Each structure stands twice: as C-alpha cells, then as structure tokens.
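User: Fold this; tokens only.

Assistant: Input:
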Amino acid sequence: MEITENYAKKPIAKINKHNRIKLHSPSLQSIVKTVFFPVGYPNSVSPDYINYQLYDTFQAFFSSLAGILATRGMLKGFGVGDDSSTLYSAVLTWMLRDGLSMLSRILFAYSAGTLLQSDVKTWRFTADIFNDLGLLCEIISVTLPKEYFIVLSSIGMVFKTCTGVCGGATKMALTYHFAINENTADLDAKDGSQETIVNLLGMLAGALMMQLLFQDCKMLQGQTEICEQYQMYQTWVLLGIFIPLHLLFNYLAVKSVVLKSINKQRGEILISYFVNDRTILSFNEVATNEHLLKPLIGYNSIKLGCSIRQEDFHRISKEVDKSIHIFPGLCNSH
C-alpha cells in the first residue's frame, strides 16, 4: 500500500507487509520542486505556468545584472569616492528622488489603475520597459554635470516607480490566473522564493562582473580620467547586451501566458476571425494573435453617441430646434 500526495498523486511513503511505514527518500529534483514550486505542481497550476516562469527567471537575471551597473553609477553620482561631495548634498538628492517617486506613484496609479486589470500582459511587458528606461536615465545622469544629474536621475526614479505599480498590479492578476486550485498564497510565496534565488545568482554574477571591470583599471594607476572613460565604455557595452536580453525574455514570458478572459483586443480577434473565416479560435490561438503594445497605441474604435457637456446643452438644443423648422414635414410624419 502506498501513501500519495494530495495533488500530484506521487508516492511519498509505503506500508510493507509488517504494517510499517517506509518513507521514500527525496531526490534532488523533488527537493527543488518542493522548495520552489507550488504544492501539487504541475496539477495545481495552469499549463502556461512553467513557460512563463522559465522565461521570467532569465529576464530577472539579466535585469539584476543591469541594475548592478546602474547602482554603481548612482553611488558615484551621489558622491561616493568624491572628496568634494558633502553628506548634505547626497541626502538632499536622495530626498528629492524619493519625493518625486511618491508623487509619481499616486498619479500613475490614478491614471492607469483600471487599465492594468484589462490589459495585464501589455502592462506586465511595459513595466520592464519602464525599468530599463529608468536604468538608462540613471547611467546617463552620471556622465552629465552635477546640476543635470539630479534632474535625470529623478526622471529615472519616476520610471522605476511606474515599474513598481505596473509590476505589482499585474503580478497579482497573473497569480490568480496561474492558481487553479485556490492556492494563490502558496504560488505567490514560491514565486518570491524563485525571485530571491535568481537575485542571489545575479548578485554573485554581478560581483564577478564588477571585479573584472575594476581589474583593468589597476594597470592604469594615476590615470583616473582614462580609467573612468574605459569603465563607462564597458558599462555601455554590457548594457547593450543585458537590456535587449532582458526585454526579449520578458516578451517571451508574457506571450506564453494564455488568459481565458476577454478584453477589448481579444474580443476583436475573436470577432474578426469569426466574421471573416467563420472560425472560433481557441484560447491558445487568441494568445498567439495578441499584440502586446496595441492597447498603448490605440484601437480603431467606433463610438455610438456622445456625452453632452453642460455648456454644450443649449447649443445642441438650438440646433435640434433649427432642424425641426427646416424639415417640418419629416418631423410631423413621425
């Protein structure tokens, strides 16, 4: 007789002929599965979960590496290693960035709150575009004079704040999509574990990367300006690799998600294929035809009727009266 798991139906223990329970020794694969995946995986999650998590792991890794490069630049911009910088100026710059971050969070959540729910995939991809724009602003700000550093680094912080709003809201929606056994809490906790291990690996790789960047400058002792230019060149080369890979894997991750709700774009796809080809697409086929940036570009919509503002009411009523006088016979016929 075997004792199995509730979800996965895999044997975890066996009762022998002497009525003694013998536990199965866990393998490395089962340990990894238990620590980093929801209970009952793969039966407790939707079929598109594993593809999304695989691509999401790679995009998080490259995002972590790019973030380390930006952090190094920001520390330099705040005055680390510069004898002419003061603690007061560093604190003032930090407070300004945080203040703009708080205000932008409120404004962005107000303007895009309802859109985040209807176009989850679009805003999940847009979140990482905002993140990379923020990183680029922070890196560029280091190369500019100090009076421009505060402005551009604050703009980068605003982009990152938008990333936080988009990422947090869409993550919740995607978690509800993946959790098919009402296991959202477990799935969210295991997703946090996956992010933690990826960030740790990214930190280790980043530490090795920074060591290699600084190692070349040891041969240029006394030539600080040349060393800084060489390091900035290496930074841009690495960003030219990390950011495209980050966006590529993020695009693949979002495209792999097969949502079963109908928003405006998915509704248009269903209606278009039914009208033109008399076919009803499956969920996977609709997901294949989705364009992630279309909700941001806009739709070719048809509006039925229009809202009447208070100041336009009298003007419209006069035009209606005028039409009645021009076509009295038509109006009387009705």
